[in-house]
Amino acid sequence: MSGFTHFDDQGRAVMVDVSAKAETDRVAVARGRVVMDPATLARIQEGTTAKGDVLGVARLAGIMAAKRTSDLIPLCHPLMLSNVTVDLVAAPPDAVEIEALVKVGGRTGVEMEALTAVMVAALTVYDMCKAIDRGMRIEAVRLVHKSGGKSGTYEAE
């Protein structure tokens, strides 16, 4: 088959062959949020949850997840990431905002790594606070920026 596809000539799922693509600097930014009861957010900010530093642990979990994305998402290329940052910020009265930035110099993009970092950071916030607030919602996880590669730059509205 010609072009980049996840299917071979027999229609079986395969990893896309990116060996002919040029190496470029690639960047992706994803965002999301965890919405919760205002009292839960207050406890996160005060550091009084039973499991400790929620935002610090979630930040580390997001970074670790970005590095392991190819272990989690079928057919995703393993990448030597050059930078991963995950920022979590309290957004009163009732949310934690999450942003992940991922960079690589390579032949394929890092959108999946940025999205995975946000999702795992959000799930970590949920896990660490579920005993006090099972009604939390993970919302609005999306790619907001992508640059590098043949398809060019993408900016979400």
UniProtKB/TrEMBL annotation:
Any one biological process term the GO annotation gives: Mo-molybdopterin cofactor biosynthetic process
SUPFAM superfamilies to which the protein is assigned, alphabetical: Molybdenum cofactor biosynthesis protein C, MoaC
Molybdopterin cofactor biosynthesis C (MoaC) domain location: 15-149
Record flagged with keyword Ubl conjugation: no
Annotated metabolic or biological route of this protein: Cofactor biosynthesis; molybdopterin biosynthesis
InterPro entries hit by this protein: MoaC, MoaC_bact/euk, MoaC_sf, MoCo_biosynth_MoaA/MoaC, Mopterin_CF_biosynth-C_dom
Catalytic activity: (8S)-3',8-cyclo-7,8-dihydroguanosine 5'-triphosphate = cyclic pyranopterin phosphate + diphosphate
Active-site residues from the entry: D127
Entry's Gene Ontology molecular function annotations: cyclic pyranopterin monophosphate synthase activity
Residues reported in the UniProt entry to bind substrate: L75, C76, H77, M112, E113
Keywords: Lyase, Molybdenum cofactor biosynthesis
Subunit structure: Homohexamer; trimer of dimers.
Similarity remark: Belongs to the MoaC family.
Described purpose of this protein according to its UniProt entry: Catalyzes the conversion of (8S)-3',8-cyclo-7,8-dihydroguanosine 5'-triphosphate to cyclic pyranopterin monophosphate (cPMP).
Xref: HAMAP family: MoaC_B
Protein's recorded name: Cyclic pyranopterin monophosphate synthase
Organism: Dankookia rubra
